[in-house]
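Box 3.1 — From sequence to structure: Lipase
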Amino acid sequence: MERKQGFFSALKEEVVRGLSPGRSRTRSPARSGSPITSLLRRKKSNSSSNFAPNHEQLISRSGSLRPLGETLTPLMEGPDPDGGEVGDSKRVGSSIGHWMKGQLSRTPSAASTAYSKRSDLRLLLGVMGAPLAPVHVSTSDPLPHLSIKDTPIETSSAQYILQQYTAASGGQKLQSSIKNAYAMGKLKMLASEFETPTKVVKSRNSARAAESGGFVLWQMNPDMWYVELAVGGSKVHAGCNGKLVWRHTPWLGAHTAKGTVRPLRRALQGLDPRSTASMFANARCIGEKKINGEDCFILKLCADPHTLKARSEGPAEIIRHVLFGYFSQKTGLLVHMEDSHLTRIQSNGAEAVYWETTINSFLDDYRPVEGIMIAHSGRSVVTLFRFGEMAMSHTKTRMEETWTIEEVAFNVPGLSVDCFIPPADLKSGSISEACELPQDERGKSAISLATHRAKVAALEKTHDSWKVEI
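Predicted structure (token representation):
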């Protein structure tokens, strides 16, 4: 009888055969099958049998043997079920007016409920799917040496805290031996609350409203990563080959990201201690705070004006991006991370509109994987705050995500640079972070951005006339 293969054996075989993430993306992502999906289908078909003895040790490193096929089953990535094509501007136009109307309707029809759900999902995936860290870091750069002489106390304290974090996470020598990494996890996303100047609408029956899914992440030195995240029937791809960052969504297609190469924020949430330490290498210690009853040091990192300017485009300007890391005084580990960036959008003489996106992530359940401390669960709370124009026109959206890590492994055999090749249909035009906002201000150029902004403004002026009873 044919002996069944384990997941990592299947991974190695597929990579050797050339079916890596990069190879599979030589065609359009909307038309080519994902290697992750094929591996998970194989995993699901073999889940009824035991792993071969010679793979038990390799699989046990992740600390979990749950079937993978439950979360990342094959997903449609082209036209949506209602017939809208990828990139269809009429359908993609999830303007804030339409989105608000769906949120505030008390007894919406089945069609409007479906539209609102799709709009919510796009908002969730756009903001929470694959956000990037504030600044570029390279794991090949050594951490700064602890220096007290002629060094501000805020800087030297931060260096000391990072040395403690590196030691608590497994040590610099062990972390330097990691050449590549793999992680797989499950998650749930929910748009939990929507606020206007006069009303606050909370999600009812949040357990049923939450969108479930999962993600798979690969990383490789230097500065390469690739992630697939599937939630609620839609899938987001993002990757970096060390020179450029790209992203693919069903409604925007594949585009390069503005600015310098930056790490995936999801990897900093307890999955990549070495990149996390490098991220805060130039941070300052600004004080202490209790997080869930635990005393923590606070490190603060700000993106410099040059980096912010490189990430801006047309009427969308990134004003600031600040990252705070909360490191436990007891364990030395990162237990909480908060980052906030502010975007100003102004076009054709119109009044400026500001968007502030704040992501708070709490990291839990640290467990060693091959000696490296990995956070195996956590949750994020995202607040998307829009203000400007009239004083009484602000809106605030609160979103939540919980995740658990199912498998982690380091130095996966067969993983190569070919796994991080950008998609063949990658558009040359870059998209700024304004594309994550829930309206047509995500335009493909300054001209289209201004045109869409005018349409959105017309819609938004009517939202005060909506009658809402709660």
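Summary of the box: Residues 248 and 254 are 4 Å apart (CA to CA).
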